[in-house]
Amino acid sequence: MELRIGVIGTGGIGRDHIRRLTDVITGAKVTAVTDINKEIADKAAKQYHALSFPTGEDLIESPEVDAVLIASWDPTHAGYVLSCIQAGKYVLCEKPLATTARDCLKIMDAEMSYGKRLVQVGFMRRYDKDYRAMKEVIQSGRIGEPLLVHACHRNRTHITSHSNDMTVTNSGIHEIDILRWLLEEEYASAQVLTGKQNKNAAEGLQDPQILLLKTKNGVQIGIEVNMTSGYGYDIQCEIVGETGTVRLPDPSALLIRSEGKHTHQIFTEWSQRFVDAYDNELQQWVNDVKKATLSGPSAWDGYAACITADALIRSRNSGTSVPVTLQRRPEFYD
Amino acid sequence: MELRIGVIGTGGIGRDHIRRLTDVITGAKVTAVTDINKEIADKAAKQYHALSFPTGEDLIESPEVDAVLIASWDPTHAGYVLSCIQAGKYVLCEKPLATTARDCLKIMDAEMSYGKRLVQVGFMRRYDKDYRAMKEVIQSGRIGEPLLVHACHRNRTHITSHSNDMTVTNSGIHEIDILRWLLEEEYASAQVLTGKQNKNAAEGLQDPQILLLKTKNGVQIGIEVNMTSGYGYDIQCEIVGETGTVRLPDPSALLIRSEGKHTHQIFTEWSQRFVDAYDNELQQWVNDVKKATLSGPSAWDGYAACITADALIRSRNSGTSVPVTLQRRPEFYD
Amino acid sequence: MELRIGVIGTGGIGRDHIRRLTDVITGAKVTAVTDINKEIADKAAKQYHALSFPTGEDLIESPEVDAVLIASWDPTHAGYVLSCIQAGKYVLCEKPLATTARDCLKIMDAEMSYGKRLVQVGFMRRYDKDYRAMKEVIQSGRIGEPLLVHACHRNRTHITSHSNDMTVTNSGIHEIDILRWLLEEEYASAQVLTGKQNKNAAEGLQDPQILLLKTKNGVQIGIEVNMTSGYGYDIQCEIVGETGTVRLPDPSALLIRSEGKHTHQIFTEWSQRFVDAYDNELQQWVNDVKKATLSGPSAWDGYAACITADALIRSRNSGTSVPVTLQRRPEFYD
Amino acid sequence: MELRIGVIGTGGIGRDHIRRLTDVITGAKVTAVTDINKEIADKAAKQYHALSFPTGEDLIESPEVDAVLIASWDPTHAGYVLSCIQAGKYVLCEKPLATTARDCLKIMDAEMSYGKRLVQVGFMRRYDKDYRAMKEVIQSGRIGEPLLVHACHRNRTHITSHSNDMTVTNSGIHEIDILRWLLEEEYASAQVLTGKQNKNAAEGLQDPQILLLKTKNGVQIGIEVNMTSGYGYDIQCEIVGETGTVRLPDPSALLIRSEGKHTHQIFTEWSQRFVDAYDNELQQWVNDVKKATLSGPSAWDGYAACITADALIRSRNSGTSVPVTLQRRPEFYD
């Protein structure tokens, strides 16, 4: 039996997920779509032989939909997730889970009341083979206990609508989640450093930004988030342990020797870098939903990322280090 | 509508293809299996909810089977392929297409009589992203016209049943095909060099062997086929052109610094190296069959590889370079 | 005519410089030595056919000495340098120039009174071919204006006498100087971050430490100084510019494939890493002295490094960012 | 006491050696020069405060000359070397030792009659740190016994006067020597393969050429000698052993990320690649001569290289593999 999925939001990432669920993922099909722009929803519906619903709520309640994927505008995420819980349907929500910590807490409360995990957050990097291998290396003890992390998140250029906060909430958020997951602990404090601005960034945009995080055990993390690297989309991560280090490799690419140079290409678009991770994420989610047991990032993970992002933004505004204060983690999320 | 596939041969590679068609490939399902060992066929049939047929011929003729995948013992390939053509069914035959050039010709004749391409040979490397990118680089002119090829095919250890000929027909055959495909021309001559034997190879086994090929345009190719590298499964290829070179990258792997060394892992098993290529090959074949137009390696490619392998084996026995003599290529295969 | 050099301090680094001046450098010879430990001075004198002097002052004043190299205990540097200026002799002083900013200023005053540069500080990294190439890349504009620096200074293990301050004054000092030199500007502020301690470091030692510097133009610098990396001596540096980045390569080393791994060695001792830089530094200094025009790091550079190190140490003690306040740079040092 | 060296031949490489002996090497000075072109000899003499001699023989006999370096036109080498032996003076002769095997034998006879090694041949690669490390790895047994060698010798473009034979005698000769030295055995057979010609090479020039050598123990060697690689000067070497491989690294160079590419520079001129090897070679030779015991490549090595080059050239002309037949090695050269 194929899992029947309804997709809310049929813009860029939503369309890509519909294609993926149809052409790449086995055991699932997209049966329903909706979008604030009815025209593009209808177009997607037609192309993929799905139903087009006027609202997300209609889609969520439809008997043609077993599970929901949310890829709509960020501020709408929380409302749709709550509706899914109310309808008792599994939901994969693109990050962020919500735009406020209060909404994250509301979602956790609803989920706990329901009595079972229904919510997964779209932190796809956890499904990247290299990050997974990195976690295995850390856990194997080969590099000793982690002490430091050096990470870089570089886009080639930023989109027109990019804002200072989005450096944290859209880009940095992936780093916030993946490092929590790799280190298996929460953050204690957060700070943002800014300095010389890249002339190629929009006027007034603080770019690059350095995000400093420290975990409860004292692991020190420095993350360059650079929206205007100029040269490509480049994700780097090195964990420094007590006896060695482990580092993400560059994505492999042909080696060319010509004109006095040894060269390999770097991705220029984010969409090229995590193709396999997105595929793995969705396939695992479909498999998990069919087995009725989620294994991916939870509402708690969405909440922790939200709180951390808030702290970073406050630090940038205040110029000082600020504490990252999470509620006590409910046993439900252990 | 899902393509209903019958699989002949449910040993190692056959089983892996059944899993792949079921769990990874979209738009297809395995509906029938058969094996010379009835027991393992029945087991696979049960696990995958398929029918178990007593013979390959029965499977091929079954109305439950739209297309056939052959992964049985090499000497049986040609017979099954001919039956598929007779039944007018698409067939993907694992390499080699046949064990003799005469059988390859028989298959081409049958296919031409049928009037349409039905046969594809399982040279999966053509679906590897790096080889594909390499072909694009060559065609772009960035390195000028190809002059030389340096290739290595290294297994960690050989299987017990490995023979001197199998170095050419089982391992070298992949190099023979992929280089024809990259260079887009046929071979003119072939030679095998042997020298010092690896003590870790079975007694009497000539390992490593150096395969020398020259194309009709004079491109010189040297291929190390090494069944006992001792350290891993390692495929290397460098094309030297008139103004530059292009080289396959090592598969990317985490970079670890510890104990005075910078290290990354190398695959040890062949099955790890071309996972994506096999996935792409089968997905593309399924898509092509549904559109009733094959785009993968043809019976002609199987024939050319067979003739080249024969020439190499004769060279090893005679100690001299021997010509590679192909029939004129029928327009049917252009 | 060979330049006759007197060496003050014949311990580890001093002995190495004597060997270098004798066996590697052309146009110079060591004619005089001295050490607080008369015995080891006499031993070096005997081996290298030099005179052994009871005190540094005697050596400096000797007519057998054209120029002086100081490699004695840090607190003695300033005094010897002042004596050299008084004697009108060129002096290469191992870092630090002095242990206090006040002594640095005294040296600059003396040198300015003398009316000509006599003092060079032993920041040998400026003579490393890769750092030099890096500076050329920056100046070429190929990566745009520098915005960020990521640097690492990792020792395998620390010496017994290592202290928290020495992380800055002995190891970090090289980073402080080389980055000033690469970026061609002064620092505006300094901060040290500490967190989880490496269990393999001595009790009470804050290791690793993160040094944060910001230049007057706002370039943000993060330096990991790690005295107990466990795996090797490893110096890394990446400059992130407005359109690209430039990074030091790993020192080249043989590539070995064995046992499922691709490996190259990393240096374990600092003495292996900058051999050529030390050779180049001394050869250039000898050549410069003969031409009576110094081109290497000046007393001002020693002073700027000292002030910056002081600021970092104060920051570590206070837990906040502190300003780096230099006197106005005398035209004499432009 | 400085070793007084006379240099025969003050063209490109000769001038470079004079500079090196003067500015880089310790313990030696150039006291005499000569050249077939008197004018350039006088110019060099003037610049380096040396005597200019009308003939090589005059220089060799001069009491101002302790040892001789020969960097003149290839056909003159043997005569000058014989004169040096007659004069009982140490001589470093740039490769080749002689242009005929017969002259090599004559030199060995003269040297044996003299009763002591006086002759060293300028195979500088033996002084390259990476080749030396490679030899250590082989001898350590880390990769098992060597079975295969893959080597490349690539120039960016060839000089106007380049001929087919020079591919072997000028460029290939370095590979011939270094591989004998690495493997510590002699060659048994030799073959040259030619194929498609590079359009950017001069008309009629067979470029690239593949040199195949097999050692007495059966190690198989393939060497690409490519005078028109188009992209740079690139020397590669991989030794494949029974349990692993060892490979020369690319010379280290800055890593630049810009414009969608990760790039490092490749040398374009041969003179950039072996600077340190030449320095080490000459310093070691000067030290050895002073101790009156040579440790570098001997007349026997020059003879073996000459015989091998002859065999390769005969193979290219005949199109078949030819034996490499050396005289029995005199104990004198063990």
Report on the structure:
Chains A, B, C, D: Its EC number is 1.1.1.18, 1.1.1.369. Chains A, B, C, D: Residues 3-123 form the Gfo/Idh/MocA-like oxidoreductase N-terminal domain. Chains A, B, C, D: Residues 135-324 form the Gfo/Idh/MocA-like oxidoreductase C-terminal domain. Chains A, B, C, D: This is Inositol 2-dehydrogenase/D-chiro-inositol 3-dehydrogenase. The structure is a homotetramer of 334-residue chains. With 334 residues, chain A is α/β, with parallel strands linked by helices. Chain A has 2 domains: 3-125 and 277-297, Rossmann fold (3-Layer(aba) Sandwich), CATH 3.40.50; 128-271 and 305-333, 2-Layer Sandwich (Dihydrodipicolinate Reductase, domain 2). Helices cover 37% and strands 24% of the residues of chain A. In chain A, the strands form 3 sheets. Chain A has a 7-stranded mixed sheet with strand order 12-11-7-10-9-8-15, with helices on one face. A 6-stranded parallel sheet of chain A has the order 3-2-1-4-5-6, with helices on both faces. A two-stranded antiparallel ribbon of chain A has the order 13-14. In chain A, helix 7 (164-183) packs across helix 10. The longest helix of chain A has 20 residues, at 164-183. The model of chain A has no long low-confidence stretch (mean pLDDT 96). Chains in contact: A-B, A-C, A-D, B-C, B-D, C-D. At the C-D interface, helix 6, strand 12 and strand 13 of C face helix 6, strand 12 and strand 13 of D. Strand 14 (261-265) of chain B pairs antiparallel with strand 14 of chain C.
Portion of residues within helices of chain A: 25-40%
Question: Uncertain runs of chain A with pLDDT below 50, 5 residues or more?
Answer: none
Measured on Cα atoms, how large is the radius of gyration of chain A? 20 Å
Q: What is the H/E string of chain A?
A: EHEHEHEHEHEHEHEEEEEEEHHHE
Largest interface: A-C, 35 and 35 residues
Q: Give the number of domains of chain A.
A: 2
End-to-end Cα distance of chain A, whole Å, is: 31 Å
Structural category of chain A: alpha/beta
Q: What fraction of the residues of chain A are assigned to beta strands by DSSP? A: 15-25%
